[in-house]
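[job 4471] stage=fold_predict status=RUNNING
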Amino acid sequence: MKSIISAVLATSLILPSAFSEQTPDNSASIEQARQLLEDLGDSAFASPEQTPDLAALRESLRQDIETMQFDDDPIGKEPARSLFGTNPLTGDRNPLLNDRSRQIWLASAIDKLGVEMVSAHLREQASAMASGDVDRADWYEHVATCTDLCNPVVQGLLFEHIRQVAARPHLLATFATNRADLTPSAAHQLKAFVQREVDRDPSIQFLLIGRASRTGARVYNRELSARRVQSVRSFVTAQKISGDRITGFWLGYEPPQISEEIVASYGLSAELDHQARNQSVLIVAFSAADSAQATEA
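[job 4471] inference complete, writing structure tokens
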């Protein structure tokens, strides 16, 4: 067994350079890489007794996308400008994902449908977006119904984001209903978390992901999640962390809500109910090297 592990480790040392020689349209190799990364990803979530059901996790993401509704929030009528970046976590500002992530999940669609069909579909969608004919609500509706291409790619990117979070130090700060100020308990935990990570790596960076539940007015909840992120950002900067080392997103009620499957993936307390765990800011510690190597390690 030891020799097998040593051989795998020795082989893994050449993977980054080997990958760099591949062209993006080599979908067969990318698919093989995707399968390998998924296999390795199982062990990156948590200890064996907490390993989540990955099929259930993917299904929870699918349901989350399909049930997404903007209701009376005018942001739903804003133009969608990006094929796969309308959700903040699947866009290029997420430091835990990189171009390789997008290539891998798009390659899975190419393997299934063929490059001509995928190219034609995405070009059609890009043209509609460029003309202003697609708003954010339209985008979510399309992703929910495009089950052969757009839905699996968005699901895959959200899945990869969850995998990357699970593999890094993270903390969930929860908030009282209608509140954006940190409780004394949350502040104590956050201070200890930041100090521990800075001691481990003085150049550590932090990703903040704010959420609000889907209970109540959508506009209010989206704005509330932004205030929660700002509250955490202010607290972290007060610990002498410069603002350029902090990236913040506020999802409000948009996917992914923290489901039971994500709770298992992140190793969070199962005692938090759905509303409580989504009245929160998730804080993830990552290094610049982590960001550059996402899904390639």
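[job 4471] summary: The radius of gyration is 20 Å.
[job 4471] exit 0
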